[in-house]
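Handoff note, outgoing to incoming analyst
You'll be picking up this chain. Sequence as last confirmed:
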Amino acid sequence: MSYQQTRLGILGGGQLGKMLIQSAADLNILCKVLDPDASAPCKVLTNDFVQGKLTDYQTVVDFGKEVDILTIEIENVNTEAMEYLQSQGVKVFPKPHIVREIQDKRLQKQFFEKHQIPTADFLLIENREEIKKHIDFLPAVQKLGKEGYDGRGVQKIFNHDDIAKGFDAPSLLEKFVDFEKEISVIIARNEAGEVKTFPVVELAFNPIYNLVEFLFAPANISEMVEKEANRIATLIVEKWDFVGLLAVEMFLTKDQKVLVNEVAPRPHNSGHHTIEANYVSQYEQHLRAILNLSLGSTATILPAAMVNLLGEEGYTGNARYEGLEQVLSLEGVYVHLYGKTITKPFRKMGHVTVLDKTTEGLKSKIDFIKKHLKVIA
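Most recent structure output, in case you need it:
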């Protein structure tokens, strides 16, 4: 098989796109980026940046006409335009119909149910008033069908008094899962059908903002749980005939059952550590998959942790970084700043990957990072 320079279009110019471009440079891939923000993180890494709306049909069509392959780094995109481009010979991964199903958590859950993919029990509702008809189903979590992300669009409804806090829009009620831990599997599949999973990771969430604060890789789970998580992730990509990288977020229940929470059809926050911790990063793996190249080894080089660098509460404005020098002095610590000029409370501004041979060493470095490295204005 011969390989030639590829023109890759990326819908979305955030930090995921920025890290994807960094991997693309190693494979001599030319990247063109579309994003509504004139100062998006990707802009500094590509001389082919287009400012425009990701959900506008004509904008996406015009953008995609000049690329060989089109991919995404955010789900909120115009799938009709992606389908048109696909009909005109542009390779589009992930496939538009899959993105459309994932955009709507209601359709996503119905896909899981149809293909017997383990997930929490759920009900579809059209508005807040309907929750009152399902008091017996509580405690539950209400999730907006569309446009929820990074913890937004999720509300706990534990009793009748909580209903007033619910969303008055098409959504789903998902039975509350009293889980032991949250885990994630990053899986890749190319057009030839080759599939590889990264080692399962363990996530720790901020309980208020439902954002990942840090993770450990690999997860502290049994071999049985690891096999089941990988089985489920593989089942999903095969049933979807998925090409590219898919993040599968899961709950591990207290009786050791694995349930799918939701999925993301792109590089993901739970795979950032792979840049330093694994033989192939999630970004390179995504590129290999959509180019139909052999997938890389996902084996772990060293145990890792990843700490999300979030904007400090009480600060909004031009971003400043406190404690960067102290953190950079630690061995096995890798800082990734996303280049976002404005910080605000709990905005993802960067991440730090930590490598160490022991769990104790990882935890010690995490504590140091959380204590010293701050994003303020």
